Amino acid sequence: MIKQLAALTALVPAMLGTTVGVASAHSAPHATQAVVTLTYDASNAGQWAGPIKQAVQNWNDAVHNVRLEPASSPGSADYVYEATSGWPQTTLGPIFPGGNGDVQLGQQAVDEGYDMTRITAHETGHILGLPDHYSGPCSEIMSGHGPGTSCTNAKPNAAEAAQVDKNYAAGTAAVRPHHHQVVVDIWSGRVLTGSR
Question: Pfam families per the record (predicted)?
Answer without folding.
Answer: Peptidase_M7
